Amino acid sequence: MSKQIKSDLAKLNPRTVTPDFGGSIGAFGLSVGLPILAIVLNLLIRQDYHLDGMFFQNFDINQLIIGFSQLIHHFKENFNQLITFYLLWFTILAILDILLPGKMMDGTLMRDNTRLVYKINGLTMTITLALVLILRWQLTEGQMPEFQWLYANHTSLCIIAVLWAFVVATFCYIFSFVPPILGSKDYKLLAVGGNSGNVISDWFLGRELNPRIGPLDVKMFCELRPGMLLWLLIDLSCLHHVYLESGKIHDALLLITLLQSWYVIDGVINEAGVISMVDITTDGFGFMLAFGDLALVPFTYTLQARYLSVADFDTTTLGSIKCGIVILMAMFGYYIFHASNYQKADFKAGKLSHLKSISTHTNTKLLCDGWWKVSQHINYFGDWIMAFSWCLTTWNHSLLTYYYIFYFAGLLIHRQNRDEIKCSKKYGNAWKTYVSKVPYKIVPYIY
Questions:
Q1: Rg of the chain over CA atoms, in angstroms?
Q2: Is 0.90 surpassed by the pTM of this model?
């Protein structure tokens, strides 16, 4: 390789000077701590023991130790079955993602002035899954042994998903050093935040920006398929379990299942919007995203459904008034989230030129009108309100089920801070003007 080519690649893939999360120490801590947190949260919601109360009145460390011992025993005994199920799930979805028809769309313009092409087939994927579930319901006369198995092996599967995230992240890190075999490029575009040269940090944050295996975009696939759809199935398995056990439909459990199912299906069907998200355009695909997509989403976003499936039926029943409050809050958040996102998309497409904006030296405009004069990330606020409505389905029965809104708030604030640093460098004085006009970052009049 000539010196000129090396110089050009160095400019195209600059070294990461300050990695997120404090470099290797933070990356290592999160790589160990987050999987432990996910497993512990699930050990605190079991059929033989679950954490109740807004102050954890019945917390018992011995119960946690007993649950951990039972989990290890169950995991060892059923390892082959667990890994077989999960790999089949992952592989079948990958094959369907490649084979099912969809609309081809160009991604955003990358820093090498190229665009990746994505197949948008979320609708056909959703319809296929729905048809399979309906067929299985008919063939098993509603028994759905797959749901029963999924419910019984929930926490052990969480461990499998964590281990698989390690494997996927390691593969993608090693694969990032392999020159492209297919395509017109003779180089790989690396993530600006994952090219520090530190193995642990780059493995965690993701070294390659968009790892692909043939037609399969690994990052886009993991973002929308295995974890998101497993989230949906876990919720359904909880609802199914309670129905088989009691012959009744629990209103709070039905509500959380419907709300989260709608969120998942809406996200998969509208996956074209994901192409422009920071996860796809900016972040590398390392353990951070692999673990989040494959383990954290399906096994911690379902805590409300899991809790309602093991808690006392009569005590946790919401009733019509409380259900109405939850639904109104979910609809309010959904409206803010989608209305603001659609407004920004229309503005970028040139359809809302009458809205006020600030011109920048990069020939782009910063929208500061409509929804976007209320806060810099008003869509985040809508998303968080929806998250709060999900937690509210457990009302005041357990603080543990409110984990999600605290985690999600931290995630959104971290994204906002990172976005602010990037925009400040990119837009300079125009960003200062923008901040003076739109001072609130996420929550209007508060933050």
A1: 23
A2: yes
